[in-house]
Hints:
Strand order of the largest sheet: 2-1-5-4-3
Radius of gyration: 34 Å
Distance between the termini: 23 Å
Shape: rod-shaped
Mean pLDDT: 75
Low-confidence stretches: 59-100
Helix content: 40-55%
Structural class: alpha+beta
Number of strands: 5
Strand content: 5-15%
Amino acid sequence: MSLGTKLAAAVAALVALATIATSAAGLVSTRNQVEGDIDRFLRERASEIVAGERAQPSDRDGRGRDGRDERNDGNDNEDDSVNNITIDEAVDRSTGPQAVDADAEVQILDKSGIVVSSVGIELPVDESDRSLAGRAGSDIIRTVSIESSDYRILTRHIPGGGAIQIARSLGQTTDLLSGIQQRVLVIGLVCSLLAAGAGLLLARQATGPLRRLTASVEQVAETGDLSTTIELDRSDEIG
């Protein structure tokens, strides 16, 4: 391998390492930023439900904690259902914000840590969640795997006993980071090839005088003619 090729390979390797390091740092920063945004969303949603700004969740089939169908089916039972609740409750159910949109999963635990109400998929409950349901404490945030999908889940104590769990899928985050990673690999490969080409060009220019010197020495060795001249057109270290 010639000196120029060695220099070009070294430049390409350095560029590749720099690209990989920068990309890895960018991916970690992006992941942390996205998870931070999700955590803020979970805290805000939990605060809204605990503060009563959103209704307590019922199952997605419309049944509440007592199993009664809370949906308005348009038949004569509408008057009976209205008579069983206050006017304010009726307004809240018709116009107030719901506990869960399509962007989250919600689950309510009683003081013993038993699930009493949920919307969406069943969220895992471990000993720390049950402990937080029984007594006040700091929020618990963790990443769990549910049905082969990753979720970010928050558990918060409810004043008076119990706990609320809010979860959000990390599927979009995973897809986003996977797409970024693939693009970064392509960019890194292209940059490495360009760096190798540029390094080879610079190395050939820098080692040009050495190649001419090599040719002259070989000529002298073959002919024994010591009158052979070497053109000198530079005054740096190589000249």
